[in-house]
Amino acid sequence: xxxxLNIRYRTLNTSLTLTWVIVTLAIMLLPAAVLANTTPISNKxxxxxxxxIKVEDHLLNELHQFTAYPLHNINVTVRPLPxxxxxxxxxxxLLIESRLHERLSAxxxxxxxxxNPAWRMFVSAEVYAETPVVIATQPIxxxxxxxxxxxxxxxxxxxxxxxxxxxxLDQVIGHRAKRxxxxxxMINIQMLDPxxxxxxxxxxxxxxQIGGLEIRAPGVALSNGxxxxxxxxxxxxxxxxxxxxxxxxxxxxxx
Length: 255
Description:
Type Iii Antifreeze Protein Isoform Hplc 12; 5-stranded mixed β-barrel; 3 helices; SAF; signal; periplasm; Flagellar_FlgA
């Protein structure tokens, strides 16, 4: 009886030993990819290329929504960070913020933030775009009235643009040049004086108010005149020279 029990014990022990050997061998033979999947996600490293793509998309979206003036030939280049930078993989949606919509610049810095796990980093990017600006097509003399033939629109890179530069022809045509302007010069608001509302030797309307009546007469300006400036005009009906105040384009009020 005892011999039979010993035989059964040895048989059971041998069976358990074989089972452990098989399990151990199975674990050792598991593919590396399977073992990698058992690693907690929080121990993974953040894919930096994913961040660069999201930053580029964010900046391109802001540039396409820029409304201060039109942009053409837009391009964004994200500057990679050092390879030694190791961040845990973000388990939530990345929060990306920039100030490009506040002030357009050829270089900008973007904030990239993760809440789980908590980390924040900054990525630099170079922005290229072109915008139409008003340039002179011919020499413009000081105090000259800028005509339609003297200016045109041309594309220029945004890194050459300042806030004072003008992007529409009607912002320039009819104004006076405060100084001499060379051809191909980008025109900004500091180069301009307000337009004359009355031009020397051009016809004007003379308005005289008597009580509740308003009397109008044709006249000719004897000098250029700005708004609210007092000038002399000749009344074509009476041929008299009188003083008047410029109150509107080609209109002079005689008090």
